Amino acid sequence: GMRRQQATITSIGGGARRQLRSRDELKRAVSTQATPPFHPEIVNKEEKVDLQQKAVEMGSLYDPANERDACGVGFVANIKCKASHLLVRDALEMLERMEHRGACGCDPDSGDGAGILVGVPHNFFKSELESKGIKLPEQGKYGVGTVFLSKNQEKRAKAKSMVEAAIKQAGHTCIGWRTVPTNSRVLGETSGTSEPYIEQVFVGNNKPGLSQDNFERVLYKIRRWAHRTHGAKTSSKTHRLYVCGLSTRVVTYKGQLSSTQVARYFRDLSEPEFESHLALVHSRFSTNTFPSWERAQPFRMLAHNGEINTRRGNVNWMQSRQGLMKSSTIGTQEELESLYPIMNEDTSDSGQLDNLLELLTLAGRPITEAMMMMIPEAWQNDVSISPEKKAFYEYNSCLMEPWDGPALMAFTDGKCIGATLDRNGLRPGRFYITKDDRVVLGSEVGVLDISPKDVLAKGRLQPGKMFLIDFEKQQIIEDDKIKNEMATAHPYAEWLRENKITLGTKASIPNQSRHSRAPIYDLMQRLRCFGYTRETLEMLVGPMAIQGAEALGSMGNDAALACLSTTPRSIFDYFHQLFAQVTNPPIDPIRESIVMTLACPVGPEGNLLDRSPGHANRVFLEQPLLTTEEFFNLTHLKQPGWKSHELDATFSVTEGARGLEASINRMCEAAETAVREGTKVLVISDRRTGTEHIPVPSVMAAGAIHQYLVKKMLRSQCAIAVECGDAREVHHFCLLTGFGADAICPYMAFETVQHLIKKQTKKALTVDQAIESYRKSVNA
Hints:
The protein has 780 residues and is α+β, with helices and mostly antiparallel strands.
């Protein structure tokens, strides 16, 4: 259904005037029916039909892979760790003032999601459980988590038994469960039908010598084991279990609520004894997707305003890295593998980022270092950045690619709280520091009324910068100090100098030997074989080589969509619509060159959960589009252990149409065998194309092999280099890199450029200059 914000247009005096209605006015304007009477015994006794789930089952276009967030986020914290109920009330007021950043559907009382994460209110929980005859250990010796369960008593008991079994498996004690008091009358129809039964579980630390940090790791395993057992033994559609978090330091209250409903729905938040020294709030605007109770934020460690545009690739790479992961800090290899998959497929982009942040911190990295790895500054072209910090970012680019997109991230592990901004600074973040040791950070100005005389300092987050409050040191730590401490913790520059591999621009053997594997046919005959047309030569490749820019047209493209066309089309043409769905404005690569780069390390990765000099032993490419000489050097590296293996991306004419699928299956199996035997560079080549052999479309071959190796958890152990005749324009290279290619050599495009330059009567450019000009037009 259509989504809209809380603004409406009314006609007054003949003119349209925009005004913001209150929630009550909006409700009266939209709803024509009286609110149904509330029957608590019915709500708690049996489940209602989940309207959104029903829509999915009936065949809607919903896909969880499209989950995105664009929201309001902020936090209030006391630098000196002084807990108070007033701080919680301030955070809830901040949340209510960010109502315009959230959204609702056509049901005005069903928000997209909102919530609050606070420090564990020990005194409140202690008195609550004492009234039930349960004694809590001292603070830090137990973990607490808010759990979403089924309204059905039998299903709820089954889910709770799985949590208790996971606690027992870890060797600890389930102290007890507490039903969270809620007010279901504030919910709308949509959120009401999917409302869970909410309880809190308390887990006691049974081992006297187990530190609080190590107990946090155990709680992480308990939660993952419970979810995994639940997923394996029950259907998530009929049996509900979602643990919002399980920690000794923080607890979350969230749901499919509007920002104004959180305080009214969760009765705990209004109790004077409910005190905290930190409060992280979030109001969700779910873009083009279904909101849900589980996808509401804050998550376990962060709240995010923005979206991750590289999410699909990030998730694939993380799945592949699971084959290399080891961490004695988390546990044995068997225990670590029992936590897979790390990435939860059903959550949003923010949820998956939270999954990774949690893993990195529990494996031993400080939360600040983990955030720097995932959302780095634009370090490559920044002349003002220190050499140590640049080395840190370059080294960590060997471990993991950035999670890229407009993002304001507020994060906490209970020991500190902070926020960071993406390298482009595409989301706002304003902060105030008061004289009474409070810090207020929000998506905008005006989230709280603070008298100017009480303000000690104020400012805004700069692109790529971080703001941090360390509760253990009880002080604010500046961006430079945080990052310099991380950058100087290890000799990253020395590790890079000793292990980094770069490519030479000249091949070590004559270029002609690269063509000897296939019979030399007439150039025009080969161009026709790869789908080139006269238009391709004159309007695309020619201008790209001579002018150094892609040709532009002003009348649009009136060719039929490839999926509806009656003529044979290149497989690249079928993906134009995939790229047309981007809603952000195009980035100008000239004006924004400081925050953009094509440079990338390729080749086998190391264990993400560790750091060593060997992690930097990767090949650094300045760009994915390589000349024939550079491509030869990549596939014939002289460094020890860097062997390559060529996969023939052609099939015999005699095999007919069936040969295409058989050839792809053959390449996938050969790729797996080669990687398991130690190959570090896989070369997909269609050079054998001729009268006897038909080429496999390069994007199909690269995509199939990439996905196959991801599923086998082998992709991060090799580079994929594609030598192809069919790729020639920018869209083709974008697809190849997007579908898994690390390096591309479009040899037919280069031969075409050579042919066009030799045909010119005025030799304004040499062949080498024209090829460089062609590459420049692609890179721009």
